[in-house]
Amino acid sequence: MIHIPKSEYSRRRRALMAQMEPNSIAILPAAAVAIRNRDVEHVYRQDSDFQYLSGFPEPQAVLVLIPGRQHGEYILFCRERNPERELWDGLRAGQEGAIRDFGADDAFPITDIDDILPGLIEGRDRVYSAMGSNPEFDRHLMEWINVIRSKANLGAQPPNEYVALDHLLHDMRLYKSAAEVKVMREAARISAQAHVRAMQASRVGLHEFSLEAELDYEFRKGGAKMPAYGSIVAAGRNSCILHYQQNDAVLKDGDLVLIDAGCEIDCYASDITRTWPVNGKYSPEQKAIYELVLAAQEAAFAEIAPNKHWNQAHEATVRVITTGLVELGLLQGNVDELIASEAYKAFYMHRAGHWLGMDVHDVGEYRVGGEWRVLEVGMALTVEPGIYIAPDNQSVAKKWRGIGVRIEDDVVVTKSGCEILTKGVPKTVAEIEALMAQARTQAA
Ligand code: GLY
Ligand code: MN
Ligand code: MN
Asked: Is-contact 407 293, C-beta < 8 A?
C-alpha cells in the first residue's frame, strides 16, 4: 500500500518546531467523533492538521510540541488501552503504542490532561493553537491557562502570547513532498478508474445512486477506504446544481450526467469531474458546450507553472468561455466588455480551481500581501472550469437549457509546468463515446 512513511511525520514536526519562536508550545486536538443519529457515529476521519503532524488515527487525543524540552519535545495524550472497550470498538494504541508506533517522546492518558497540560504550558511565553476552529477545545485551552493564572501568586507564569498555528502549518501543507505527491497520484489513479467504471455502467433508467455504487466499488477495490467528499452524481438539470448531493434521480435518455467524485488515501484527496451523455452520445448542443469547457481547461493548464500567479489559470478559462459563449449566441456583445462586467458569471459562477491536499478544498493562502500567490513546485490544485445553463434561463434558446458541464482534473506544479495526476479518465468527446460504445457492445 502506498502511504506516508513514519519518517515524514517526524520530519514535519521538526520543520514546524524549527519555525516556532523560542520557549513556546503548540497544542492540537484530534477531530471529535460526530454523531449521525442517536448512538450511530459518522465514519471517523482524523483532523487534517493533527494527521499531518502525527499520522495518529484515533479520536480523543491531543498533540503537544515543545521545541527544546529536555524530557521530550513531542507529547501525545491519548486513550488508555481498555480490553472491554476494545472488544466493542476496536484496538487502541494506548500510551505504549503512541511511543512505539507513532514516535511520541512521551504519552499520557487523555483523562489526565487537565492535571498535566497546565504544567507543560506554564513558563512558556507563547502558545500556538488553531484558535477559532474548535470552540470546545478553545474553551479547554482557556481553562488550562486559567489554572496557571490562579497560581500566579505562587509564582506561576502564564504565557503572554497566543498565536494562530494555521499560518505556519498551512503554509507547510501547501507544498507537497515527493511522498505526498506519490499518495495523491495513487488516489487520482483509483478515482480515474472509478470514473471509467461509472461511464461504462451508464444506462438510461438507472438511478444516479447506481452510478455512485460503481464509484464506491472501485474506490474500495482500488485500496481507498472512503471518498474524499460526498460524491456528486447529477443527471439532467441536476448538473446545474454545483454541489448536488441528492443522487436519487433517474437517468433519462438525452440527459448528461455530471459526476464529481474522488477517493482519499491516507487522508489525501483526489477530485475529478467528468460529464457524459447517459445514452453514450452527446447531442450537438451538449457537444458544443462540452468542447468549450474542455478548451477552457486546456487554456488553464498552459497557465500553471512556476512564476505564474494563482489567478492566471482562472483568467484564461474566463476568456475562453466568454468568447465561446458569444460564438454560440449565448452571450451578446464585446468579449472584453463581457469579461469586465462579469456577464459570464450567469453561466460560469465558480473559480477555475482550488488547492488540493489533505482537505479537498485544501489550506494555504491564495493571496500574499494583497497579490495573487505565485505558483511554486509542489503545489497541488484542481483545474475545473464549467458552464451551467439554468433550466429556467429565459434569455437563451430552449435547446440549451438545463445543460451543465464541468471537467475537473488534479495537477501538481513541476519545474516545467504541471503534472496532471488524473490523466486516467478519457476526456475528449470521441474518447468518451468510444469507451461507452465499447462497454455497451461487451454487455450486449
Ligand atoms: N468537489 C468539489 C469541488 O470540485 O470543488
Ligand atoms: Mn470536484
Ligand atoms: Mn474541486
From this structure: yes
Active-site hit among 327, 361, 366, 367: 361
Tell me phi and psi for residue 381, to 5 degrees: -150, 165
Q: Specify whether 243 is catalytic.
A: yes
**Intervals of CATH 3.90.230.10 along the chain:** 175-443
Whether the per-residue pLDDT at 152 is higher than 90: the answer is: no
Which of 195, 212, 215, 229 should be mutated for ligand 1, with most atoms under 8 A from CB? Answer: 229
Q: Which atom of ligand 1 is nearest to the CA of 384?
A: 4
Take atom 5 of ligand 1 and give the residue whose Cα is closest.
361
User: Would you identify the CATH topology of the domain 175-443?
Assistant: Creatine Amidinohydrolase (3.90.230)
10 Å CB burial of residue 191 (0-12, 13-18, 19+) is buried
Pocket test for ligand 1, best of 383, 408, 409, 422 (most atoms within 8 A of CB): 408
Closest CA to 313 of 298, 325, 292: 298
| Residue 312 contacts residue 383 (beta carbons within 8 Å) | no
11 catalytic per annotation: no
Q: Is the pTM of this model over 0.85?
A: yes
Per-residue pLDDT tens digits for 102-136: 999 999 999 999 999 999 999 999 999 998 888 99
For the chain, residues classed under CATH 3.40.350.10 are 6-173
Backbone angles phi, psi at 392, to 5 degrees: -105, 20
Q: Of 297, 287, 304, which Cα lies nearest the Cα of 321?
A: 297
Please state, rounded to an integer, the average pLDDT across all residues of the chain.
97
Share of the chain above pLDDT 90, in %: 98
Domain 6-173 has CATH 3.40.50.150: no
- For 129, phi and psi rounded to 5 degrees? -155, 165
